[in-house]
Every structure is written in structure tokens, then in C-alpha cells.
Write a structure and sequence with these properties.
This protein is mainly α. Helices cover 66% and strands 8% of the residues. The two termini are 71 Å apart.
């Protein structure tokens, strides 16, 4: 219990940093770096990074400005510099006059400090809040007018007369066996032929290797060189004949497999198109498709 009470201030201090990390997604890399240092309670480093960012970006976007001044204000408060913390919170409220810190994530003294700054500057924040509200309303009206204009144009001209679909192809597939390049190029029949041929030759090669090992390891095929029909290698003549036949099948199937693979790679490269643009034109009775090939 005592240990939990001792860790509670650290949890409260880290709380805003976790929310800060979520808010930092999609913002400037310097602010993400500052948020990371803020998360570990490195107040001086976080404040220094933010100050460098603000010096390089005097007029940042509102989202980034709110995040920067929030980190700076809380960090300066933890460092004991109330004057700089106050200045950061004033800048924060100038961006968002209604901004409030979450009392469940931020230590209460910091929350009260921000509210004190808000009360001191409320005569100025009131008109600023109204001006920002009017700007947001104007942006909303402009968006509505833009959407209405586009909707009216679509209603007047009808649906688009042409839709272009772009298909990007993967170059590495040209080097794969079993007709992968042919299937990508849309040559299904040729790809099936390459795949079937390579599978058959591969199966024959594996079977020949297995039969070869069985003949070699079968004691019945071994003999003493002094025996009749025994070759110098220590195997019976009949066994050696079978081995030569199996070896011929093994090496021939392997050679044909790699030859067919090479032919497939060559054919895939010869017919490879990096990108295909398909123009689809709507019609009352169906769809007309035309292809344009880009090399």
C-alpha cells in the first residue's frame, strides 16, 4: 500500500504524457520526439525540443501549436519556472480559448494554474473565442457550398463517361517457377502448362532420388568383387544397371525442369507489363473495356 502511494505522483505525472502521445500522431517529427521525452518525464528535454520547434515554426498549424504549448506549459511548471509556464498557457489559450486540461490525467495544481491564467485573460479571450467561432462557421458554410456546387455539376453532367482502373504488377513474380509470371500477365493457359510441366518434372526427379537411395542402401544389391556378376564398385551388375537408368532419369528430369523454368522466366519477362490502365466506359446495355499497355 505504501509503495502504491509513493508511485501515485509518478502515475499522475505520466498520465498526460500518454494522452500526449496519442495526440502527437500525424504531427511534426520534432513534436513527436518532444512527446516521447515528455512521456518519460524528461521535462527539460521536452521543453527544449518544443522551443526549438517554435523558433523554426513561428506560426504552426493550430493542432501542432496546441500540442506544443501544452507540452511546454506542463514541462515548465514541473521545472519550477512559473513565468514561462504562464506564457506557454497564454499562447495555448490564444490558439484554443476553451482548451482545458483533464483533471484525471494532469496533476490538479497544473489544472488550477491554467484556469487561473484563463480567468486573468478572460476579457481578451471572450472576443477571441467569438472570432474563432465565426471563422469555424464560415469554413463550414464554405464546405457546404463546395459540396453543393459539385453535386449540382454531377446532376447536370451525369455520371463520369470513363473510369480508369490502374493495375500495378510485381516484377519479382517473373522469377518465380510454376507459371507465376504467366498468371500475372493474364496468360492462364500458358501458366497452367508451365506449372504442370514443372510439377511433373519435379515429382519425377524426387522419385528418382528416392529410388536411387533405396538401391544404394539395399544390402541385397551388394556383393563381393570375387563373385560372378559383381562389379568392382561392390554392387551387382543388375543393380548397377538400375542405378544408371535411375541416374539418367534423375539428371534428365532435373535438366528439363531447369530448362522449363528458364523458358518460363524468359517468357514472363518478354510479356511483362509494369502497369495496365483499364478504361471502363458505362453503357446502358453493359460495359465496354479497352486496355492500354505502358512499357
Amino acid at each position: 500500500m505504501t509503495r502504491a502511494l509513493l508511485l501515485l505522483p509518478l502515475v499522475l505525472a505520466a498520465g498526460p504524457s500518454l494522452a500526449q502521445t496519442r495526440a502527437a500522431a500525424g504531427v511534426h517529427p520534432d513534436l513527436r520526439r518532444a512527446s516521447a521525452r515528455f512521456e518519460f518525464g524528461a521535462w527539460a528535454e521536452a521543453a527544449g525540443i518544443v522551443q526549438q520547434y517554435l523558433a523554426a515554426h513561428p506560426a504552426p498549424p493550430e493542432q501542432e501549436a496546441v500540442l506544443a504549448y501544452r507540452i511546454l506549459g506542463i514541462s515548465e511548471w514541473h521545472l519550477g519556472d512559473r513565468a514561462h509556464a504562464r506564457a506557454a498557457f497564454v499562447a495555448l489559450l490564444s490558439e484554443d480559448p476553451d482548451y482545458r486540461l483533464d483533471p484525471f490525467l494532469v496533476p490538479p495544481p497544473i489544472v488550477e494554474f491554467l484556469e487561473e491564467v484563463r480567468r486573468e485573460h478572460e476579457p481578451t479571450l471572450g472576443p477571441l473565442r467569438e472570432q474563432k467561432r465565426m471563422l469555424r462557421e464560415q469554413e463550414r458554410l464554405a464546405d457546404e457550398a463546395r459540396r453543393r456546387l459539385l453535386a449540382e455539376e454531377r446532376a447536370r453532367t451525369g455520371p463520369p463517361s470513363k473510369v480508369v482502373r490502374v493495375q500495378e504488377r510485381v516484377y519479382a513474380l517473373n522469377w518465380l517457377p510454376f507459371g507465376a509470371g504467366q498468371f500475372q500477365n493474364g496468360q492462364t493457359g500458358k501458366g497452367t502448362a508451365f506449372a504442370a510441366g514443372e510439377l511433373a518434372l519435379g515429382a519425377i526427379n524426387v522419385a528418382a532420388i528416392v529410388v536411387h537411395d533405396q538401391i544404394i542402401n539395399d544390402p541385397a544389391n551388394r556383393c563381393v568383387p570375387s563373385e560372378a556378376g559383381c562389379e568392382a564398385s561392390g554392387y551387382k551388375s543388375t543393380a548397377r544397371s538400375r542405378l544408371r537408368l535411375v541416374d539418367a532419369v534423375k539428371y534428365t528430369s532435373a535438366g528439363l525442369f531447369w530448362a522449363l523454368y528458364g523458358l518460363g522466366v524468359y517468357d514472363a519477362h518478354r510479356n511483362y507489363v509494369p502497369r495496365i490502365e483499364t478504361e471502363i466506359t458505362p453503357r446502358e446495355a453493359g460495359v465496354t473495356v479497352s486496355l492500354r499497355w505502358d512499357f
